Automatic annotation (TrEMBL):
SMART domains: HTH_ARAC, REC
Xref: InterPro entries: CheY-like_superfamily, Homeodomain-like_sf, HTH_AraC, HTH_AraC-typ_CS, Sig_transdc_resp-reg_receiver
Domain of life, per lineage: Bacteria
Protein name: Protein-glutamate methylesterase/protein-glutamine glutaminase
Lineage, broadest ranks: Bacteria, Bacillati, Bacillota, Bacilli, Bacillales
Length: 521
């Protein structure tokens, strides 16, 4: 709803203008009419309109003075002057005040429609940005200013949708995740715009808490039940045409009060994390799940502990890995949740550490390693490949081969380091790098981090962003999208997102901040 105030001292003209404005479309709502400047001024301060149509010559305060006085109090309000005078001086002052349109009387419907088309698009753009920021602040628990909605909009029901593609990632910046760029390939706003069976007033799309997530907030237009299942099916069909990945689709309860948005968002996220099934797409409707439901699997019963320990003590690596593969196959058939798989694998590794009396075989960051392994796994087959290296360490330790292999590992890491520096502008994946030195992805990531302090993908990102920062400051001729391409990011939006994740600033903000600093110095 776009709020409009009209100020005109001649009543017949005032009524005619209001009729033309409200007849344009249902988005425009004239919330105030004034026949003098002072009344218009007080009305604008109280009602905060998006658009003000004003005559120039009015009693009390003329239109130009009205605009001048309102500029500080209502900086985003769009002003349109309607005057019977084509005097150049009026037009010059109007331009100086930032007036968007200057119309001459008598105003025809055609002329009004042309102006309304332009100012409506501008108002929607400004209004939409404020709504987007307001919803974002609610989700993140930030300090909230005055809602930019009409009162009736606040009282409508809302829903929060979280979609996670692939495994749930515990890392906000997770460039090793195979789905870190999935939302740059699938156009969610366009998908929502093409959905005809959902009666919603608006939908806002946000980044999730990991790069493979997306969050959508719906404001519903009716009191009927939200069609979650049809929406899930429509998304499944559209998404599967472009991507062959599993995803978890979690829809919140109905939110009657906007102030409860954050609470319901957190609840939806918690239900998702407890019930997402690894390797399989799933619809989760929060109302169907209990928050405190116990884990459905006992880690002690998820594998044959004595059999695995026997294989390990007899140095039978192939048999142990085969048994783990059987366990994973059984978990896949049982459709275990990701959190259950994490629990079982953690317990399995801890049992083996305790049996070997060398708890330091697995790094102190055991949980972090498992989180990394699961986040980079596309399915159970890749999960088995990635987790195998965690178990193979026990055999390296038993054979005393870790020290003898350390030099060759260090040499391989230095080769990877040099390759990343020389080819940062190329399209590089962690799998390609691992194949180059005949390492498993998780093994390479772990060993690289031991030596360099960060993972290879984080290292590559660091190299790229550092070079991008230099190019931004050194060159005024290159566009940001060209700089992104020069450091390995073919998608300018993805480059901007990664740049902001790493530096806290967009490329343009970074450039402006440094230019300002240099100027002050």
């Amino acid at each position: 709803m776009i709020k409009v105030i009209v100020a005109e001292d001649k009543h017949p003209i005032l009524r005619n203008l209001v009729k033309k404005i409200e007849g344009y479309n249902s988005q425009l709502h004239v919330i105030g009419e004034a026949s003098d400047g002072m009344t218009a001024f007080e009305m604008c301060l109280r009602l905060k309109p998006h658009i003000v149509f004003t005559d120039i010559r009015m009693p009390g305060m003329d239109g130009l003075e009205l605009i001048k006085q309102l500029k500080e109090a209502c900086p985003e309000t769009i002003f349109v002057i309607i005057s019977g005078y084509s005097d150049f001086e009026y037009a010059r002052q109007a331009i100086q005040l930032g007036v968007k349109e200057y119309m001459l009387k008598p105003v025809t419907q055609h002329a009004m429609d042309e102006v309304l088309e332009r100012v409506t698009l501008l108002a929607l753009s400004q209004y939409g940005a404020k709504e987007q920021q307001y919803i974002s602040d609610l989700l993140k628990g930030r300090h909230i200013s005055t809602p930019p909605f009409m009162p009736e909009a606040e009282n409508k029901p809302y829903h929060v949708l979280i979609i996670c593609v692939g495994a749930i990632s515990k890392f906000h910046i997770d460039l090793a995740n195979p789905y870190h760029d999935v939302w740059f390939k699938f156009d969610m706003p366009r998908f929502l715009a093409n959905i005809r069976f959902i009666a919603y007033d608006n939908a806002w799309v946000f980044d999730g808490e990991a790069m493979n997530e997306i969050v959508v907030v719906f404001r519903c237009g009716t009191e009927s039940a939200f069609p979650t299942e049809p929406l899930y099916e429509a998304f499944y069909q559209a998404f599967s045409q472009q991507q062959e990945h599993f995803f978890t689709f979690a829809m919140s309860n109905r939110i009657e009060k906007l102030c409860n948005l954050k609470l319901e968002y957190q609840l939806t996220r918690m239900i998702l994390s407890h019930n997402a099934v690894f390797g399989m797409s799933k619809l989760i409707q929060v109302g169907d799940y209990a928050l405190n439901a116990p884990n459905l699997i006992d880690p002690d019963k998820s594998f044959d502990k004595q059999k695995l320990l026997s294989f390990m003590k007899n140095n039978n690596k192939e048999a142990l890995l085969s048994e783990i593969k059987l366990c994973l196959a059984d978990w896949e058939r049982s459709k275990l949740s990701q959190i259950s798989i994490e629990l079982c694998l953690t317990h399995m590794l801890q049992c083996m550490c305790q049996a070997m009396l060398h708890q330091n075989i697995v790094s102190r960051d055991l949980k972090l390693e498992l989180d990394e392994v699961i986040s980079i796994s596309k399915d159970y087959l890749s999960l088995f490949r990635n987790v195998s290296f965690l178990f193979e360490k026990f055999f390296h330790h038993a054979q005393g081969s870790l020290d003898s292999a350390s030099n060759s590992v260090k040499n391989a890491i230095e080769i990877v380091d040099q390759y990343l520096q020389d080819h940062m502008a190329d399209e590089i994946t962690i799998a390609d790098i691992a194949d180059m030195v005949n390492f498993n992805v998780s093994f390479l990531s772990r060993e690289f981090k031991k030596i360099k302090g960060i993972s290879p993908i984080e290292y590559l990102t660091q190299l790229r962003i550092e070079k991008a920062k230099r190019l931004i400051l050194e060159s005024s001729n290159h566009k940001f999208k060209d700089i992104g391409y020069m450091v390995g990011y073919s998608n300018p939006y993805y480059f901007s997102k990664v740049f902001k994740l790493v530096t806290g600033l967009t490329p343009s903000d970074y450039k402006n901040a440094n230019v300002t600093t240099e100027y002050k110095e």
